[in-house]
Every structure is written in C-alpha cells, then in structure tokens.
Design goal:
Elements: H1 5-9, E1 27-30, H2 47-61, H3 65-74, E2 80-94, E3 106-111, E4 141-142, H4 145-152, E5 163-173, E6 192-200, E7 202-203, E8 221-224, E9 227-229, E10 235-237, E11 248-251, E12 260-267, H5 281-286, H6 297-300, E13 307-314, E14 320-332
Antiparallel strand pairs: 1-2, 2-14, 3-13, 4-7, 5-12, 5-14, 6-8, 6-11, 6-13, 9-10
Amino acid sequence: MFNALGSIINPMSWFSGAAQPEPSTPSETEAGPDPEAMGSDPYEPTIHDVLIVKAMLIKAMRLPPEIIDQVVEKAEYWPHTTVQLSYGSALTVAGHSLHTQNAPEDVLLIRTPPLGFPRFPSDSDGADISQAQVLPKPPGDPFPPTAFQPLIGSKDPLLAHPCRKIVFTIVSRDQGWGGAGEDHLTYRGSWTWFEAGLERWCQQQQPPSDLNLNLDINNICTVYPEVVSNNDDVHDFVFPLAPVETLKIQCNQTASMHTKEHRVEWRYTDGVDGVEDTEGAEALAAQGRGTGTGDGKFVREMRVGDVVTVWAKARFPGWTNHVESVRVDVYWAL
C-alpha cells in the first residue's frame, strides 16, 4: 500500500503547476514533478500534493487525521527542498602552510532554505539566503512554531521538529598524494572533509515574544559551528583541529587523484531503538562518515525555520580539498 501511494496520486500533481526548468547554480527549489523521471524514480511530492492526498484520504476513508498522518509518514510522502552549487573549476580549500596562513581552512559552501519555507524568500519577508554574510552570532532562545505560522500562510498547526531526512551529495577529492601508504584510497588518515552546520533565528528581546519574528538573514544565529565571545564581546567561530564527529558528513578518500561522488543520508529514525540496520560507528568510519552521526539527533532536533549549512575543511600543509559540487535535499513532515 505504502509503496504504491506515490504512483496512485501522480495524476494529482497538476495542482502544483507546471514543472520548473533546472535552475542555474547556486539554486534553491522546491522539488516538483519531473515528467521524464515519472515511472522510473520514486515520486517526490510538493506541499500541495501532500495536503491534497491527506484531504482525499480523510474524505474517502473517513479516518481521523492522526491515522492519516501515520499513513503519510509510513509512506515517507514528504515535501522537500533542494539547494545545489557547482563550480566550473573546483573550489580549493587548503590546509595552512607558511605561505597560506591567511587562507581559510574552513569555508562555508552552501545554505538550505529555512525548514518549511520551500520558496524562501518569496513566501516570507526575508532576503536571498545565499547572499548573507558569514557572521558569528551566538544563538538565543528559539522561536516557537506559532511564530512562523503567519509567515508560512498555513492554518494547519506546525510541528516543532518536522525534519525527517537530509541527503547530502558531494563531488570532491583531495590533493592526490600524501598520508601513510596503507591509507591510500581508503578513508583513513584523511585531513580533507565536510561538516554540517546549523543556523537559526532566535529571540533577542527580553522577555521573549513570538510576535517579533522577522526572517532577515543578517539576523540569523549560528548553532553549529560553536560561537564564543572574547573579553571585548567580539564573537568568533570555533573550528577544532580534528573533525567534529557528530557533524562530519564525509571525508575524501586519502591520496586519490579522481573525484568521487558521495551521497550521505541522515534520517530522523537513525539510532532509534527498534530501527533495523542502524549503522555503528565502525561502519560509518569505514565509509568516511562521522562516527557520531548515526544517532539521528541532528535531524530530530531541527526546528521550523532552521537552515542547514555545509562547510569544506582541510588541515595541515599539503592537504587540499577540491570541491566540484555540493547538493542538499531536506525533507520534512506536514
């Protein structure tokens, strides 16, 4: 039943309008119907599709909304957004040496639209999220979901933690040499990698209020990476020398001259008791992934309006992270 749900409602996709052409990069889109892909790949619905299917099931089957939500959840019938960035020639992030002390070892590559806002900024009063400066601003108290209700324009109550899945697709390589010989073409001993970050709009006034939310991208706070303050009340990012295993998406194969595509999926059910095939730390390390990313915590704790970021990293002289493209798909429940 659940596997067939997507094909059953395909005819309803016309409610979402015509399919959009492939956007130029960088790009932010809500995934919609692709006529060429229908029948071969799993159908990925828009927000309209999900709402229509829920209404159809409630009317046809006369089931309570709670049961309908479970059916949609089991079918993984979720809307999602896609943001992608490709480089004509690979972006290079190099570890520090005597000649590159001023070059950043940590580079922000991409931001996703805020969770639940597939057409940001057109469906809010925000600005182009890709144009925001990278400013270290410590987080405060998060806004409640009710603060986002007027901006989204939906009367349906919003889930506090709606994220269900994040898919990272990265094409990259390292410098093609270096490291221990036994580590070549494995993920051991790699000092070029990618980490996830998280940004969030937080309440600044005291006492806090859910009436002052304005999605100005220049007011967004950083949850990850960590932000600290010095004695002059100046804020700085904290970038540890080694990977943060709870945020590490993927490292490059060591000493490989060939670019490789890695597709990494984080799910809200990862690590939950009773979920089969949950990957352990050793299995994750063997794939070049963060050993602390198998618990699903990052996905489960995301809130409405949260922004996922991807950072490219390199450490030590000679180590170079060559990035050809990065893509992030974020799925959430209604």
